[in-house]
Specification:
358 residues, alpha/beta, Rossmann fold, 7-stranded parallel beta sheet, 3-stranded parallel beta sheet, 12 strands, binds NADP nicotinamide-adenine-dinucleotide phosphate
């Protein structure tokens, strides 16, 4: 049986890809979750998945993590500006370790996209082609979640601001892309690129679906790119980020995020999740997210962290508390992300009850 490795396994897409491999019947012992620090894969390790510890920027860590791996899903890094150099390290280490196929999560239409994000993916694709290891390019479109995560903000403002014009976005959910990745990991195809995207929608249509699903009227307001770059600054974005976001929308307006490919539905053999379903799920989560779970911990250990992760995934904000004080929970809250914080009062009867209830 081949051994599969998935990098970025502490992130959203990597986690889903591992779940999909397991759901397809791959034994956990034949899967390696590659993470920057072992603790981030504690729950996967508890289910029998192997864990490899590696950082794309530290080549010396990559060889050991990829030893014995047959097929590698290289999930693109989230550290913009460093992608090509980091991915080159991973590809070189995979080749040296004798990996027989590398699948890389690239970007839709990377070959000729004008998106400011495309260059690093194009460079990685070139390195992969030249490495001489069989490869598969998963050119993923945008995640639908990118457009539903700010749902609360849209509902509050009653509008979506953008500079995407009539541009269409062939988005799909992370689980959709992960299902295609898992199918292709088990597939012996020739070296090729798959353009992966779902049914395309424009931002006016997004506003319409949100209005229908939530019953709150939301409209789309299209702005010239320069004006749009100024608008989010009011809500705290620095100028460079605001200009970058405007450039991303300008690329959508030019049609970079469209595709006629049906590969995303065909590969895993299941329909791509509908936009209305993703909006509905985000709306349900938003209603739950107004609730907070208080979790009492003993120390800052893995069990409490796993409970907190489950609570966050179920839509709660979590407040962590232990007898040693919030300073001892800094690493854990950082790992858990923006929906977790530590609180000053020590463990109380109330938090113990909340923990038990979860
Ligand atoms: N298609 C889209 O709309 C879209 C949107 C956003 C991002 N992306 C791309 O798709 C990728 C996966 O998406 P996602 O939602 O799963 O992102 P994510 O949740 O941010 O996960 C990124 C993963 O990459 C890992 N990583 C980052 N830098 C690393 C390094 N130097 N060495 C080893 N691992 C590193 C992170 O590890 P840590 O947990 O240690 O940080 C994390 O596991 C992103 O990284 C980005 O390239 C696509």
């Amino acid at each position: 049986m081949p051994v599969y490795a998935v990098t970025g396994a502490s992130g959203h897409l990597g986690r889903f890809a591992i779940e999909q491999l397991l759901a397809r019947g791959v034994p956990p012992s034949d899967v390696v979750a590659v993470v920057r620090s072992r603790g981030k894969a504690a729950s996967l390790a508890g289910r029998g998945v192997q864990v490899g510890e590696a950082d794309y920027s530290r080549p010396q860590t990559l060889g050991a993590a990829l030893a014995g791996v047959d097929r590698l899903l290289l999930v693109s890094s989230s550290e913009l500006g460093q992608l090509a150099a980091q991915h080159t390290n991973v590809i070189a280490a995979a080749k040296a370790a004798g990996v027989s196929r590398i699948l890389y999560t690239s970007m839709l239409n990377a070959g000729d996209s004008t998106s400011p994000l495309a260059g690093e993916h194009r460079d990685t694709e070139r390195v992969l082609r030249e490495a001489g290891v069989p490869y598969t390019l998963l050119r993923n479109g945008y995640y639908t979640e990118v457009y539903t995560d700010p749902l609360g903000q849209y509902l509050q403002a009653g509008e979506i601001l953008g500079a995407a014009g009539d541009g269409k976005i062939a988005a799909a959910t992370r689980p959709d892309y992960a299902a295609a990745a898992a199918a292709l990991l088990q597939h012996d195809g020739g070296n090729r690129a798959y353009e992966l995207g779902g049914p395309a929608f424009g931002l006016p249509q997004l506003a319409q679906v949100i209005s229908e699903v939530t019953g709150t009227k939301v409209t789309y307001r299209d702005l010239p790119a320069g004006e749009y770059a100024g608008a989010p600054q009011q809500s705290g974005l620095d100028e460079a980020t605001a200009r970058f976001m405007a450039a991303l929308d300008a690329s959508i307006a030019r049609g970079d995020l469209e595709t006629s490919s049906q590969d995303l539905a065909r590969l895993p053999g299941r329909p791509v999740t509908l936009l209305s379903e993703v909006v509905r799920a985000a709306y349900d989560l938003l209603k739950v997210r107004s609730r907070t779970a208080v979790i009492g911990l003993i120390g800052a250990g893995n069990i409490g962290g796993t409970v907190a992760r489950l609570a966050i995934d179920a839509g709660y904000n979590v407040v962590l508390s232990n007898t040693r004080g919030p300073a001892t929970l800094t690493d854990l809250t950082r790992q858990l992300g923006p929906h977790a914080r530590a609180t000053t009062p020590p463990l109380t009867q109330q938090s113990t009850t909340a923990d038990a209830a979860l």
